[in-house]
Amino acid sequence: MPSDRTDVARRRFFQIWAIIGAIAIVYVLGFVLNVLSTPVAIVAWTAIIVLCLRTPVDKLESAGVPRAVGSAIAYVGMFIVLAVLGMVMFSPALGLGDQFASMLSGLPGYVQQLVDWGNRLYVQYADVLQNDTVRSWIDSGAKSLTDWASTVAKVSADGVVGFGTGVANSVMVIGFSLVVAFWILMELPAIGRETMRLIPPARREEAEMIHITFTRVMGGYIKATLLQCLLIGAACGICFQIVGIPNAAALGLITGVMNIIPVVGPWIGGALAALVGFFDSPLAALLALVFTIAIQQFVYTFVSPKIMANSVDVHPALVIVALLCGSAIGGAMQGLVGSVVGMLLSIPMVAIAKSIFVFYFERRTGRQVVSEDGVFFRGTPSHLDEEATRPDALTDAVGVASMREEEQARTEWRLREEARLLAMRYERGGAAKAATRSEAEPPSGDEGGDSAEKSAESRDSGENNPENR
Q1: Could you report the per-residue pLDDT of 15-36, keeping only the tens digit for each?
Q2: Where is the composition biased (Basic and acidic residues) (predicted)?
C-alpha cells in the first residue's frame, strides 16, 4: 500500500540522516577537542585526581576530620607517594635515565645486528632466495629498517626543545588540575546536593544511576589500571634483571606503562624486552617473554578480579570490539596519540553504556536481563518485590555491591549532617543562654561601681549609727 511505502521511505530517510548526523557530530567533536585540547586535558586530569582521592577524603571525613583538612592530607599523601616512586625509579642505583639513553643510542646497532642476521640466513638459504625480486625486497626492507632506526635516534636526540615545551605545557595543565581538584574535593558533597536540587524529581533516579555508574566504573578502572601497571612494571623489571636483559629497569618501566593499553599493551612490552634481549642471548629473550606472560596472567587472574570487582565487568569480546572502535575513532581524530587515548577510554565507556542499557531496558520493558548465568549481562539479579516479578533496574544497572556502598555512604552522610545540625543548634542554644544570663546580671561599669560604693557607704553609716549598735 502507498501508506506503507511512505512509512518505509520515511524511516529510511530518518535512519540515513541519523547516521550522517552522528558522523558530523563525531567530526565536530574531534575538531572541538583539538581546539580545546588544554581545557579538556585539565578537565580530564581533574576528574582523575578527584576519583583517586575521593575515597580517602570520604574516609577521613567519616572519622571526624574536616573535609578541607582531609583533602589537604590526601594531597600530602599523594605527593609523598609520587616522590617516593620518583626517587626509587630515577635513583642512581637504577639509572633509568642512562638506560633510556643507552637504548636509544643502541637502536641502530640492534637493527644492524638484525640485518646481519638476515644476511647470514640469506647466505645459508641462498639457493632458495636467488630470485632477483625477493632479493630486492629483502635489501629494500633492510635499508628501510636502518634508515628508520637512524631517524628515530636522531629525532630523539634533536627533540629536546620540543620535549621541554611539552613538559612545560603538561606541568601547567597538571598544576591547574591540582588546584581545581582540591576545591572540588572540599565541596564535593555540597556540589552533589546542589546538582540533585537542580534535577526534577522524576529524573533523579536516572541521575543517580548515571552518577553511581560513572564513579564506580571510572574510579575503579583508573585505580585498578594504575595498580596493575605498578605491579607488572616492578615484577617484569626484576625478572629482566635476573635473566640478564640489558637496561632491565627501563624495559620494566616500559612494560608497566604499556599495560595501560588493554589486552595488546602488555604483549607489546614483553615483545620489546624479548627483542632487546635476543641480541645478547636468545635464551634470555625467551625467558623474558615467558616471565612477562606469566606475570601478566597472574595479575589478571588473581589481582585484577579483586581490584575491578563490581567496577568494570565487560565481556572479552566486547573489550576487543571496543578497543578496535576506540582506536579507529581516536586515530581519525588525533593520529597515533588519539588512537591510544581512544583505546584507553573504550572499556570504561562500554561499561557505562552497558549499565545505562540495562537500566532503561528493564525499566521500560519490565523484563530482567541480568542473570547469574548470563554472558554479556552477568550479575546478581535484584527485585522490587518478594515475588520476583518486578526487576530493580537501578540495582541491576550499577551492581549489588555498588548499591550497598552507595547506601552506606548515604547513611554516613546523613549521620554527619544530623550531627552537624545538632552541633549548630547546641551552639545557638548556648549563645541564647549566655545572652539571657547577661541580661539577668546586674549592670556593670560605672553604674555598677556607683552602686557598690553606695552600698558600702550605707553599710558603713549603719555600722556607725549608735542606734544600730
Answers
A1: 788 788 878 877 777 677 666 7
A2: 430-440, 451-469
Single-letter residue type at 448: G
Q: Say if residues 249 and 237 touch (Cβ distance below 8 Å).
A: yes
Vertex 300: Cα angle to 285 and 329 (nearest 5): 90
Q: Do 228 and 303 form a contact (C-beta atoms < 8 A)?
A: yes
Residue that is written with C-alpha cell 552507595 in the block: 406
Measured in whole angstroms, how far is the alpha carbon of residue 399 from the centre of its chain? 20
> For the chain, which residues make up each domain, given as ranges?
204-309
For residue 381, the 8-state DSSP code is -
CA distance 412 to 325: 41
Instruction: Report in angstroms the alpha-carbon separations of 33 from 24, 37, 196, 230, 344.
Output: 14, 5, 28, 30, 16
**CA–CA distance, 440 with 443 (Å, rounded to integer):** 9
pTM above the 0.70 mark? no
pLDDT digits 0-9 by tens, 104-157: 666 677 667 777 777 777 677 666 566 666 667 767 776 776 666 566 555 554
